[in-house]
Amino acid sequence: MKTTQPALLTINLSKRFKDFQALYPLDLSIEPGELVVLQGQNGSGKTTLLNCISYLLPPTTGTTKIKGFDILEQEREARKHLVYVPDVPRFYLELTAWEHLRFIAAANNALDDFEQRAEKMLKDFGLWHVREHYPHHFSRGMRLKLGLLLGLIRPSSVLLLDEPTSALDVQGTELLVKELLHRKDQGNSILLSSHSTQLTSQLADRTLEIIEGRITLDTAGISS
Amino acid sequence: MKIDSAKLAINFIRKRQEYSDLRYWLALVAYDPEERTVSNKFYLVYLVIFFAIWFFMVLIFAAKGLLNFFELAAPMPPALVVSFLLLLTFSIFALVMLIGSSVRSALVFSEEDRFLLCQQPIPTRHLVMRWLPLPWIQSLTLLILISLMLGFSLGEITFPADDIASYFLVYVWFGLRAALLAIPFHFALFSSSWAVGLFALRHRGQVKSYLPVVGLGLLVLILLASVVSSALFGLGLPFSEPFNNFLYNLLLAFFGQGEFGFGLTLLYGLILSAGSLIWLWLAAKDFNPAKAAHETQTSALLSSFLKYGQMDAIDEIRKKRRLGLIGHNQFLPDWQNNKSFAWKTIIQARRTLRFSDFYLLFVSLLLTIGFQFTGNTPAGWLGLASWIWMLSRRLLEFFKQDLSLWTLTRQVPFPMRSWAFFDLILPTIPHLIVVTIGLLISLLVFPVKQWVFIFLLPLSLLSAMLQLGQDILRKNKVELLNLGTVQSYGLRGLLMALLCLLLPLFILWLSSSFLSLAGSLISSGLLFWFSYSGLESQLKRLQFEKESILL
Predict the structure, then answer these.
(1) Out of B325, B351, B482, whose CB is closest to A137?
(2) Nearest CA in chain A to B407
(3) Omega before B33 cis (within 30°)?
(4) What is the number of other CB atoms lying within 10 angstroms of the CB of residue A201?
């Protein structure tokens, strides 16, 4: 059922790197509880789009509204609802996996029941035994899992995930799918980029195809 | 046929590395071997002449310094003194090379070598022989300079100081002879140390891996002890007399004395070199390149970073080493929102605490006491300027790291300035405390009572850090921060930081009137405000700037 307030709304969002138009003006709307998969070849603009939506990379034009809050004008409120997990998460050298989770939870004012939640997540994703290890010793898959957990440990309404399964094992992928479906049922909106057709067919309410910075296919019939 | 192509591949790769290394050193003197113009050839000639003269002058200057040593060693003949010094130099070189090649592989492979070369079925003997020249020449350079200096120092004492021009060619020959003879002996030592290193690598983890290095090391020490005790105290080891005599004559030959001539000594050196090369060739049969590459990957990376001045990358590698695998923590306060950054910074500071931090605090203390003692003078300003430069590297570390984790720190639901100020001010607090203590101590102890420094110096230090932080923000772009790349501050930032530190002191220095005092305090306050608001505006620019660079 469509509500009046989209969870994520981009208005005329575009990105230009000097002479290169990486992303053409785009209006995109994602409803609460909707899971959208973004597909496209390498270099088509998926990561740029996610970066611009989250304003980690300021767009050349346009803006994003998260639960009605403009990310430029009401950044603090917008950020409370938005989580972006990059494809290559980075970590502090001096903090362990557990401390990373605690730091992100604390920064987002979400320390209530932290121990229980963190323990469950770490156990589910097979990182409990390395919770006191520094992430720079982790394998690529473990780093990606920790990056995902940093996004999932804090409250959010909109999740942006950049190729979240690219380095995950089968078990990790299944757990992530389960977690995303659970979040979707709770009303979270999810936009993720992926090359996996299996993941798309398993999860997507809607698929967007991006080619050379333009959305060329939207299974819901919305395109720029 | 297959072996030949493998040898060609090794030669090709190594040649490229040698050429790249040569180009690096030539680039330091602004010479490009790729440029084929006549002016460039003239420039090369100019460089050769310039550096030949420059090195000659520096070595002569150093050689003159050694003359005092001869006076101390009197009545020992100068030729014997330089021979001992040469023996000592060779012994130190030998021990350093032997220990170095035994602790980790003597052959150093880069990350690219590790994956592209060391995993191939390559002829190991050829690989070892082809890898030898570059590090050997690098090691030889220092020994050549020392030998030249020792030879010149003997020339200085042999020829009359007021008529040295008449003996110029002979004087130069004194240095050159020692340097030329040092080459084969150094090669013998170097290749022997590699042979020992290859043995140690093969048996790594076993006690016997250390046997050759311990044996040879002891031999070097016994030789040194035997020669020194025999020459100085007449206490030779049993049956060592013939050997000592041989060694004396060999060493004296480097300086044109003793029973051996130049040709015979050179021949001894060449025979020794050939013997050690054969030993290395034999030892290289079972060389395992992949094992060597695994051992040397970090040191290869460190030397590459060092070569190109990437000190932050070196710090990161060292920090990872120090941190180890696991971190335990009992400090878990319920600090939320922006206070979580304070918690994180405290953990980071605690885990990276090292001796140099205490040293920096000690410098801060001494400097402030010293500044109070000497008073507000230009000489003191120079000290303060170098102090800021010393502190900046460590104090800006957390700020830069938070910027490099842009995908994490940009997403927190509070203004970026809250954590930016935490990062810049928290690490500065211990220095602010130490500076204040230093100033209070000096106010009590010294007769010159400049109480105003208690306000000026801490505030100026804060302003300087904010200026440097501002400059880091100015120099960075979000596209690069998203990739985890952070630029450090530039010259402009450093100059602005120095201005914040020194301008109030300069105004105070102009006169001792109340006006000057007030001007100094007001300027200090204004500079702090200026630095604070500048940092804020740079933060806004960085977060919302739409203009991008093309990646």
Answers:
(1) B325
(2) A56
(3) no
(4) 10
| Alpha carbon B23 to chain centroid, angstroms | 20
Nearest CA to B313 out of B401, B224, B239, B229 is that of B401
Tally of CA atoms within 13 A in the half-sphere of A43 that contains its CB: 2
Is A153's Cβ below 8 Å from some Cβ in B? no
A43 touches chain B (CB under 8 A): no
Bridge partners, residue B514, by sequence: none
Q: Which residues of B touch A18 (CB under 8 A)?
A: 548-550
Chain B residues lying within 8 Å of A83, measured CB to CB: 411
- Quote the Cα angle for B278-B280-B283, to 5°: 110
Residues of B in contact with A106 (CB under 8 A): 334-337, 339-340, 343
Which three-class secondary structure state does DSSP give residue A62?
strand
Asked if B334's CB is within 8 angstroms of A90's CB, the reply is no
Of chain A residues 71-100, which have a CB less than 8 A from chain B? 72, 76-77, 79-80, 82-84, 86, 89-96, 99
In a domain, A3, yes or no: no
Which residues, other chains included, contact B269 with Cβ-Cβ below 8 Å and sequence gap of 6+? Answer: B181, B183, B184, B185, B188
Side-by-side strand order, sheet with A82-85: A82-85, A158-162, A189-193, A35-39, A206-211, A214-218
Q: What is the CATH number of the domain that holds A43?
A: 3.40.50.300
Q: Is the confidence metric ipTM above 0.90 for this complex? A: no
* A128–B contact, CB cutoff 8 A: no
Q: For residue A3, is pLDDT > 60?
A: no
* Structural domain span for residue A121: 8-218
| pLDDT (tens digit per residue) in A74-121 | 988 999 999 999 999 999 999 999 999 999 999 999 999 999 999 999
How distant is the Cα of A224 from the closest Cα of chain B, in angstroms?
A: 21
Total domain count, chain A: 1
- The answer to whether A208 and A217 are in contact (CB under 8 A) is yes
The whole-number mean pLDDT for each consecutive block of 10 residues of chain B, a chain of 551 residues, reads 76 92 87 86 90 87 80 78 90 93 90 85 92 94 93 85 78 92 96 94 88 89 81 68 83 89 94 96 92 88 84 85 86 87 91 91 90 81 90 91 92 88 91 92 77 88 95 91 89 94 91 87 95 93 74 51
- Of the candidates B157, B152, B141, the one whose C-alpha atom is nearest the C-alpha of residue B177 is B152
Output the pLDDT for position A221: 46
Judge whether A56 lies within some domain: yes
Whether A224 is covered by a domain: the verdict is no
